[in-house]
């Protein structure tokens, strides 16, 4: 389990004080008597924040990979489009296929990674906020 002593925020003055693990503790700055329930909530909040920080890190890494994979798949589509373009018997179906492959490939290459990056940046800044804390 968690160690018995850790820093908790005084609900009255907001300064960090050492939680000695007793049923009540007294703030050495403002003298407020703090009940266990008041700091138990903080304990959960703190743990939840840590879990979210780890989770966001994982999501940020995943999004980075996702952007790369998307571009690799996009290149396959673009290459397929080029193959279709230079196919000897150029028929209407090939034109459609070329447009689809090119269009989809270009969209995946240029648009999707940007969207993924934007999402990643949002999560990054949220994570930074969480780390720097209240
Ligand atoms: Zn205090």
List the helices and strands and how they pair.
Layout lengths: L5 E4 L6 E4 L4 E3 L6 E3 H50 L6 H41 L2
Bound molecules: zinc ion (ZN).
Zinc ion binds next to loops.
Question: What attributes does this structure have?
Answer:
single chain; 134 residues; mainly alpha; two-stranded antiparallel ribbon; 2 helices; 4 strands; 10% strand; binds zinc ion
Describe the protein's architecture and organization.
- The chain starts with 5 loop residues before the first strand and ends with a helix.
- It has two helices and four strands, in the order E-E-E-E-H-H.
- The protein has one domain (6-132).
- It is rod-shaped, with a radius of gyration of 27 Å.
- It has 134 residues and is mainly alpha-helical.
- It has helices spanning 36-85, 92-132; strands spanning 6-9, 16-19, 24-26, 33-35.
- 68% of the residues lie in helices and 10% in strands.
- Bound molecules: zinc ion (ZN).
- Zinc ion binds next to loops.
